[in-house]
Structures are given as C-alpha cells and as structure tokens.
Amino acid sequence: MNQATAATNLKQETPVNRLHNFCAGPASLPTEVLLKAQAEMLDWEGKGVSIMEMSHRSSDYVKVAQEAEQSLRRLMQIPDNYKVLFLQGGATLQFSAIPLNLLGDQDGKGKADYLTTGAWSGKAIKEAKRYAQLGLGEVNEVASSKDSNFTTVPEQSEWQLTEGAEYFHYCANETIHGVQIFQPPQVDAPLVADMSSCILSEPIDVSKFGLIYAGAQKNIGPAGLVIVIIREDLIGKASEWCPALLDYANQANKDSMLNTPATYSWYLAGLVFEWLEQQGGLEAIAKINRQKAELLYKTIDDSEFYINKVDPQYRSIMNVPFTLKDSSLDAQFLAEAEQAGLLNLKGHRDVGGMRASIYNAVSLESVQALCDFMIEFANKQA
Ligand SMILES: *Cc1c(COP(=O)(O)O)cnc(C)c1O
Questions:
Q1: Residue 191: what are its φ and ψ, rounded to 5°?
Q2: What SS3 class is residue 280?
Q3: Hey, which of 81, 240, 342, 359 has its CA 20 to 30 A from 375?
Q4: Which pLDDT tens digit goes with each residue over 20-66?
Q5: Ligand 1 mean position to 189 CA, how many Å?
Q6: Alpha carbon of 265 to ligand 1 centroid (Å)
Q7: Which residues of 161-187 are buried (b: 16+ CB within 10 A; e: fewer)?
Q8: pTM of the predicted model as reported, rounded to 2 decimal places
Q9: 129-166: per-residue pLDDT in tens?
C-alpha cells in the first residue's frame, strides 16, 4: 500500500482518540493534515529521509517552502507588492521587530500609534515603549478599553491619533478577551495588525494593511513560526540597533532564510494551506466559522447559566470566553467536560471562567458537542 492510500484509508476510519480540542494555542490541527505528515514522516516523497532532515537550501525543501507561500498568497489574495516572510520568535518577537523596523530611520523623530483592546495589544505597546524610552521614537496609546475590562473597542471618534505617525498598531483579535475588530480601522498611517488568532478565518483585503503578522500555532500550523506580510515600501527602514535577524530587509532579500528557518513548521503550514484550499478557501471556512460562533453565542445567550460580556459587535468568532453564573461550579464543569471528550476549556487566568477557541480546524460537530454538553450541564443544575 503506498503512502497516499494509507492516508486515505486512515481518514475513512474514525481516527483513534481524537477528542474535541478547544485549546487557545498551540491549537487543534486538521486531522487530514496530521495524517499526511505522518504518512510522509519517515520518507518524504521517496527521498529516504524526513523533510526535517533535509537542508533548507536543498531544491526539494525550497520548493516546499515556496509552494507554501504561493498557497498562502492564493488564499489571502496577497498583492504582488507585499512580501511574505516565514520567521521565528513568535508574534511576541514582532512586538520588538515592528518598532525597530518601522520607527528606525527617523533619527528618533518617528511616531507610532497603538490601540489597546486587551492583553495582546497591551503587550505590544509595552514592548514598543521600551524602545521609545531608549530614544527610538515616540509611542502613543490612542485609546484603551481597559475601563471596560476589555469587553469592547473604544469608539474611533475618541482616538487620539498622531499626525504623521509611521504606523498604527492594533490587535485584530484579542485571543484572551474574545474581542475582534472585523473592519480594518480607517486611519492615515499604515495599519499594522496582529492577526495571530484570526488570520485565515475569513477573507480580508490585504491591500488595506501595511503589515500583518501572525504566530502560527492558532490557525496556521505548529508553533515555532510567525508569518509577516509586509508592503514593500515599509521594508528597509530599520534602525541601526535592529538585530540583523529582525531586519525585514535582510529576511526579504534572503527569502526568510538568513539563517535556518523552522523547516518543519513551515512545511506543516504548507499542508494546512493546502487543506484550506481543498475546503474551498477562506469564503468557505468563514461560513463555517460564522456558524460555529453563532451556535456557541446563542447557547450562551439563551441560557440563564452562562455569560459572555463582550459587546456583541466585537464578539470574536475564534475565541469565546464565558463564565458560569455560579463560579463555584467551574471545576465540576471542566471535569465533566473532559469526561465528555471536550478538552482545554479553562479560561485564561486574566479573565477566569471558560474559553472555547474555535479555530479553523475545530469542526462544527465539535462546537455542537460543546453546546449540547453546556445545555445538559446547565439543566442538571437547575
Ligand atoms: C498567541 C498570541 C500572541 C503570542 O504569540 P507567540 O507566538 O506565543 O509569541 C500574540 N498575539 C496574539 C493575538 C496571540 O493570540
């Protein structure tokens, strides 16, 4: 039996012990992708070695890397004047790379605007301010929704925008607080968006952005990789302090292979992109994502038992935090959920309660199973 047949046969059987995984990250991956990786693990395309054991400079690996990029370009319809970089250090290292690159060539006079809507955008501005304090430039918080405990997004009319800012940074989906900004803000400065937990969940117009970045371990693939999509005119502005490895110009010139990239994560990301194309692309996956989110929010809203406090227009379709009216039942809820095969529902410590992350690889069936469990659990306590 060849590998392809083995993979298909396995797919037809119910895969052993694949439970419903609502982990916020590293998150669920499509079973089909894991089966393909498994089938190719020992002997990649008859080469007698695993893809992990190949030089990143070999023509075979370079082809895999380029195909992954092309697939991502097709999925997101990335215009030709954007570079796509496959880097390391996670989204968190981009919190440093962004100011070091985009404020860099202004002799300390550059300005950047940041919108704070939750934990992740909060970390991004905190890191940028470190460089501002060292004289790299000026970093301004245009508004924060801290007063609402990050359950909404400040009205744009209240934002204190800086004239001539080099960029405007925001987090498109706050993974911990479950707050999503669906429309790109309309500001003059180039938009820089942390899309770690919402990239590929629905179509977006890339041309509205200066830079999009996303750690891989939510909707792209395994940890160890961060993808940066950057408009070409923003490349080549790095500060002289910027480490060579973080300079977008260096990475763009070397096709993200200035040093050894995260080869296995990049390969697996390629398999996930291929899977997404087979599902019908972002329009198709967005439709399922909307269904999943609607079902879960409806279950919460229809009950007297569960609460989600996020302003309905900003409710995330990827991360759904909720609390039980009676938090003394939290531990029992989690234990019984786990017995029912529903894993990783404990909320982030900053927010408490529960959180269901329902990324692309989490099926409608898994969300249905969660909703059924929630209703049954609530009824039992009544
Ligand atoms: C997970 C996450 C991060 C951090 O990603 P790392 O890869 O762990 O650095 C940053 N921003 C958002 C929105 C995230 O969801």
A1: -80, 130
A2: coil
A3: 359
A4: 999 999 999 999 999 999 999 999 999 999 999 999 999 999 999 99
A5: 23
A6: 16
A7: bbeebbbbbbbbbbbbbbbbbeebbeb
A8: 0.95
A9: 999 999 999 999 999 999 999 999 999 999 999 999 99
